[in-house]
Amino acid sequence: MDENGFATPTTFKHHSNEELKEEMNALSTNYPSITRLYSVGTSVEGHDLLVLEVSDNPGVHEPGEPEFKYVANMHGNEVVGREMLLLLLKYLCENYGTHPQVTNLINTTRIHIMPTMNPDGYQRAQEGDYGSVLGRPNANKVDLNRNFPDQYGPTRWNRKLEPETAAVMSWIKSYPFVLSANLHGGSLVANYPYDDNRSQTNGIPNPTPDDDVFKMLAKVYSNAHPTMHIPTPCKDQPREVFPDGIVNGANWYVVPGGMQDWNYLNSNCFEITIEMGCMKFPQASELQQYWLQNRLSLVSFIEAVHKGVSGFVRSTEGNGIANATISVFGIEHHVISAAAGDFWRLLLPGNYSITASAHGYDTYIIF
């Protein structure tokens, strides 16, 4: 492997939508035993929202194996995550079977990677853009990270779901995702829920019931990054200093209708938002450095899907019970079991009282 971790030559460049599709198709063709390419829907202008699954058994949910996802380029002009995920896919495929960490990760995790959620916006963005909003929204001029249903009610941005938002919501509901990150740009920090508060006021923290877990997850990414964990503000925001490189979203600025909050409140999936750098659309010549800075963080964060507890909820006859509620005493947030009765609950190390309950069955104390 070369200094970038690849077995074959790598060109660090910005890929057009067509080039991105070609690269994902090539990986799917070259590594059919560990990949599956699929679309979750289309953008306003008809571009497929492509996902490449990486797994030792692609196309199948293996009972007991957690599912993970990365999403990038939700804002069309924030492009670092888009290219980092394409590089991550290449890295995972080329290192499977030879790199113990990567091989174990793929053998024990079903990984889904969507390099772009906003291909239409990307087409309008421009290389070299430091901090504008050119290309940020979708083709209907809607900010997709304000378009999800919000716990505090509708806003002018989410009264009508955009095609990209609806497709991703359906995707999230279709798989038993456990952990996720949404890759953005414009700052350097790992941002965790909640992203807004009841008064929609910037600077007022709004922690979830799993605040300690989210802080741990954010630090997994930040601490593996060479500079994110060091409070260094972007040049245009000298007062933005984030201790440990993490921040509660609402304590930074409110984002009503954000995707990470919707994940947490409407699925089993814990999602954070990674701001990957101060510049939104850096020059292609900078992408290799971004990759070297983020490679370990991207892999380490996937590994975090295995933190906490997992198991199966079964009847006395040994049949898996789907949609059983898994509750942790003292934490007002529940997850449900998947089709085979398998479940995953992200937690910090410690002692917990955990119960499983399902309609028609006696409640059972697991731990």
TrEMBL record:
GO terms for cellular component: extracellular space. One of its GO terms (biological process) is peptide metabolic process. InterPro entries: CarboxyPept-like_regulatory (IPR008969), CARBOXYPEPT_ZN_1 (IPR057246), CARBOXYPEPT_ZN_2 (IPR057247), Peptidase_M14 (IPR000834), Peptidase_M14_domain (IPR050753). The active site is at residue 275. Keywords: Carboxypeptidase, Glycoprotein, Hydrolase, Metal-binding, Protease, Zinc. Residues 13-305 form the Peptidase M14 domain. It comes from the Eukaryota. Its cofactor is Zn(2+). CDD domains: M14_CP_N-E_like, Peptidase_M14NE-CP-C_like. Pfam families: CarboxypepD_reg, Peptidase_M14. GO terms for molecular function: metallocarboxypeptidase activity; zinc ion binding. Belongs to the peptidase M14 family. This is Peptidase M14 domain-containing protein.
